[in-house]
UniProtKB/TrEMBL annotation:
This is Bifunctional diguanylate cyclase/phosphodiesterase. It comes from Thiomicrorhabdus sediminis. Residues 22-274 form the EAL domain.
Amino acid sequence: SKRKRTGYSLYNANQNVYSKDRLILVNDLLEALELEQFEINFQPKINLETGSICGAEALLRFIHKNHGYVPPDKVIETAERMGVIHRLSLQILKKSIAECSKWHRQGYPISVSVNLSVRDLASTGLCSKVKEFMEEFNLNYEFLTLEITENVMMENLSLSIDQLNKLNKLGVKISIDDFGTGFSSLAYLKRLPVQELKIDKSFVIDIEQDENDQQIVRSTIDLGHSLGLTTVAEGVETLTAMEIVKSYGCDQVQGYYFSKPVNPEEFRRLLSMQ
Ligand code: C2E
Ligand code: MG
Ligand code: MG
Ligand code: MG
């Protein structure tokens, strides 16, 4: 088909050496985009004060018909190279907003967090798309959080700040994802319209044994709070890890201890059980 040929030529024109696997992924990714075949799983975010689910992070799931599960980072990276990341992100955004509005209709007024990548912030149409979807699904802006990594923001700082300010004005919340792994300085943090810090899971996974991790997580939580931000620890895999971050005053946790990312139906079941 025409689409398939475009996929190959796009790929070969820009890059030199590619494995067969990658070419297959490119074509199937384009097809999945066209057919809106990507699935989204949701991982609960737990409010440590109440112990209940206060939100969910939307995570892309792509099951390839021959290769099986393709990690989302790989899908995103490929979509970025192909220049279709924004189309993909908008599909994920729309589906996540639709799902969140379903939770609200069922009596669970919780928020949804969606990951964005570099190109998304560079697109000036992002804000109006967010508006369009929120209006379409009749969801209040305060229930949408956009997760952005430090490096994504640093790539084009002034444009990022403009975009984030516009989204912020609507009421959308901004979260810095994988905090502590990027290159942002604290001076930047002050300038950015951000409401939430997500402490990277690499500092949390071994927190029971690693005293350095304990110090890092503790001081990150304090830093976040001193700037008026909500703090979230990701990668909480055990009860003890949860208790440690709770003792530091962390606001929310996300991790396998509570639940892996699950499909929409399973997530609604989790909501109904609490
Ligand atoms: P992220 O945004 O930091 O998402 C958290 C990752 O940690 C997810 O991996 C999640 O499954 C994993 N995780 C959660 N709890 C635990 C835990 O207790 N232990 C461990 N070991 N891992 C845990 P996943 O789903 O493989 O996603 C990886 C990354 O891919 C994400 O990191 C995000 O950067 C990117 N990604 C996923 N979905 C999307 C998307 O829709 N759009 C964009 N732009 N990026 C996405
Ligand atoms: Mg994230
Ligand atoms: Mg993260
Ligand atoms: Mg990550």
